[in-house]
Specification:
Elements (H helix, E strand, L loop, with lengths): L1 H8 L1 H10 L3 H7 L6 H21 L5 H20 L2 H7 L1 H29 L7 E2 L2 E2 L1 H22 L7 H26 L7 H6 L4 H9 L15
Antiparallel strand pairs: 1-2
Helix pairs in contact: 4-5, 5-7, 7-9, 9-11
């Protein structure tokens, strides 16, 4: 991206070079369109770079990490474009909007891969409450699976790095907005079904504030296991 930025500073000279050494097939492509050969070359490089990043993202076995990789690099590319009047003038707003749409999709993919399964644990889908009665063992299993899922996320995703502070904040806010209210509601509805004391401590390991704190520590690159907190 830095090389492309510098290339744009020599746009007029490079336009002359590409005009002089344009291939016959390129003449056909731009015939009647007054096409800019330098802009065409730059857009070709941008598309190759984008395709290369998507190919590299598929090397990650974890789909969530793949989405984080694409978000990190996609945000970097957009920042470079919007921070340089020269390259922004060549690339154009349409391309930038397209990449912004891609970024939103990567974000949705990450949310789906990581947090949808966590959210599903906090739903009473007719299994926890049957004919008005809470199934105690099912409830215990839900809390156990939720605690295990949060522990795994904290250990793995806590080691991931999102260097752009705005992107890091957007991720944390979007996660908290979905998970924290659902968990608070789940706690309010079901935590009283455990006996006070050791049984509650065994299954209800996180308060709403604890969950918020865990989310705030994600993407800093400092992985830690979930402390055995008390509500």
């Amino acid at each position: 991206m830095n090389y492309l930025k510098y290339a744009c500073e020599y746009k007029r000279t490079l336009e002359q070079v590409f005009q002089e050494y344009r291939r016959p097939d390129e003449d056909e492509e731009h015939e009647g369109g007054g096409g800019d050969p330098f802009a065409a070359k730059l857009m070709e490089v941008m598309e190759l770079l984008h395709g290369n990043l998507e190919a590299k993202s598929r090397l990650y076995k974890d789909p969530s990490l793949s989405s984080i990789f694409l978000m990190n690099n996609g945000r970097y590319m957009l920042q470079k474009i919007r921070g340089s009047p020269e390259i922004n003038a060549v690339v154009g707003e349409v391309w930038s909007r397209k990449r912004s749409t891609d970024l939103r999709q990567y974000h949705k993919n990450y949310q789906r891969e990581t947090w949808s399964r966590v959210l599903n644990l906090l739903r009473d889908d007719g299994v926890i409450t049957v004919k008005g009665h809470v199934q105690k063992q099912v409830l215990k299993d839900r809390f156990k699976h939720f605690n295990a899922a949060m522990d795994e996320i904290q250990r793995t995703q806590g080691s991931w790095v999102v260097s752009d502070e705005q992107l890091q904040s957007e991720l944390r806010v979007s996660i908290a907005a979905v998970i924290v209210p659902a968990y608070r509601s789940f706690l309010g509805r079901f935590s009283q079904h455990f006996s006070a004391g050791r049984q509650t401590e065994k299954y209800v390991k996180l308060s709403g504030e604890d969950l918020e704190a865990i989310i705030e520590e994600l993407f800093d690159g400092n992985a830690v296991s979930m402390p055995r907190r008390r509500t």
